[in-house]
Request: fold
Amino acid sequence: MGMDSDSRAEGGLLARLADACETTDVLNGRRDDLLALIEQLFGRTPIMLNGFDRQRRCILWNHQCERAFGWRTDEVMAHPDPLALFYPDVTEYQDVVAGLASHDGSRFQEWTPRTRDGRRLTTLWANVVLPGGDRLCIGHDITEQREAEKHRRLAASVFESSYDAIMITDAEQRICDVNAAFTRITGYHREEVLDLTPGMLGTAQRNAEAYEAICQHLETHHNWKGEIIGQRRNGETYPLLLSASVVRDDQGQRLHYVATFSDITLLKRHQEELHRLARHDVLTELPNRRHFAERLEAALPRARRDETLLAVCFLDLDGFKPINDRLGHAAGDQVLITVSQRLRHAIRANDVLARLGGDEFALLLGDLDSQDECLQVVERIHDLIGRPIPLDDSLVKTSSSIGITLFPHDDSEAEILLRHADQAMYRAKRSGKNRHCLFDARHYQEEHHSRRRLDRLEQALCGDEFLLHYQPRVDLRRGEACGLEALLRWQHPEHGLLEPADFLPQLLGSRLESPLGDWVIERILDQLEQWRHQGLALRIGFNASANDLALPEFAERLTRALARHPGLDGRMLEIEFQESAAMDDQQAVSRALQHCRDMGLRVALDDFGTGYSSLSHLRELPIDILKIDKRFVAAMLDDDRDTALVQGILQIGARLGLDVIAEGIESPAHGERLLQLGGSLAQGYAIAHPMPAEQVLPWLERWPASGWHSRRP
Ligand code: C2E
Ligand code: MG
Ligand code: MG
Reply:
């Protein structure tokens, strides 16, 4: 307070105080005035005022102190050592006491006492030591100011140290501040951009619409976020991820725009790389299946519009697996890389070459004028792939099987086109590899139908739609039945009872051949079991397909089937087989037949005299019975040569110790002739048609009571 002499001279406050002190009247009304004045001054002033005596007991604690600390005057004054209230921590308390002693009362010093509820205050105090040794302390609470300052500093350091660029504009979109990252990213210094609009970032020039759209959006929304293209000070463009927002005052008036953005060039590059990787094969760097599909998809409408031809080729290397297995994967990889390079050379720049996986490649040849043009490329490919491929220390050779389909001749969708090319490739493989095949819709349809028919047959087999009929065979001379042949029938739900000629050709050679064989044997064994209980013990012959017979596990399956019927043995069975192409593996067939014989079965060579018949089979195969084909038997009455053949077969059989059965005895005359020629075993419509199992016993009871001429079941 620098008003000493002047204010005293002019009758100021201090003068009045001094005056009051000097009057004798001091104990009267003026004293009360003075006290009221001091109390007003000390107690009500919005500054913290307090006082302590030499023993540090509180002698003054004004209203403002009560508000800041939460302690009431009477509480602080009554306390023997009130400093301990503000500094509950002992060490801190001791420091404060020591600090007070050295405190220079002419200057404000910072103290951080605690309030009643334990909060730290940041306060500034000046302590005036009064003549008697008491202290009068004047203080401000600057806690809030400090907090605000900290906050401001933090914000400033975030602004400055942010890795993202920050740009602040005023309400008119004139830049009023930018941070260091802004300069790093854009190349512009703060001073260069102040007062400019964000358009200078390059976005406005490059993409005025986008800039306009952002501003528009910010009119109605609080913020905008997205990617745009920016331009640096040096002219270079770059992708940036921008987020912009509007700062408004309490009344909703726009004050500022704040934009933060980062340079996402690296991120973009990374994304592009990932995208590329997802669409390319790592080894050959060629497009992969997905990429190929996209390109094909896009090419179809173009080809349609331009009325050009487009070829989809599916290429598979021949004999790649052995190379891989023998020479190792590194060699395999080298082959694939070389092949992909050669394929690249064989096609034009706009054509697409992709690796679908393994040793499969796909080609999309566009803008073709004719099928021939495509075939020329394919020829070139065959030639290039067929050339020796150098490896580290050797040369390998491979070739390619290629399937081709032409759009729009094959007017299918992208995915189907590739599948058709794949099917054509399989046909190329099956027809000997190192060649190409064009997809042929008709052929495909046929395959498709035959697959569906086979599926239907499988359903029939699983659904018990098949059954067996039995045709007796007899000894005409003795007039007794000597066996039955089991013949397959299909009780079709729509087409009625079907004979083998209607379905067997599709079934033979298919995946169903063995399951059907098993089913037949199982049914026969069940039937034998049933007849055994009824007192009938006739041998049953069944027809085995030659393919099945050549399988190494055939005998094993038969053994297992017999084992499931302990009451039966192989002597109740006869196996009939035809000489056929499967006889190629004569050894396998011979082994199977021998095995059958070992189990007690008799072996019959069916339809003898037709097909692949060879007299040497009679010597080499373990055969017990010959069945003369019904064509010779039927013609025997009219044709001397057929008669001679039948007679010859009968004689061969007799000489080799084989039974000979004549099939197709259609009339009594055929039977008579057979007997004349020296035969006696016969089977045919004149004796009995094949019949359901339940008719067999009644038939046997009747036969040969009324002779053996034709009776239908
Ligand atoms: P297959 O083994 O030579 O059977 C004799 C065929 O001649 C039977 O035809 C039978 O009905 C027929 N047949 C019998 N007597 C006469 C006759 O007097 N005149 C004429 N013209 N035909 C007669 P099916 O039942 O149609 O069987 C045809 C062929 O199907 C069989 O010829 C056999 O090779 C095959 N087959 C039948 N069942 C099976 C079977 O379960 N498995 C296999 N793999 N093939 C079977
Ligand atoms: Mg037969
Ligand atoms: Mg036959």
Residues 1-11, 709-713 have pLDDT under 50 and may be disordered.
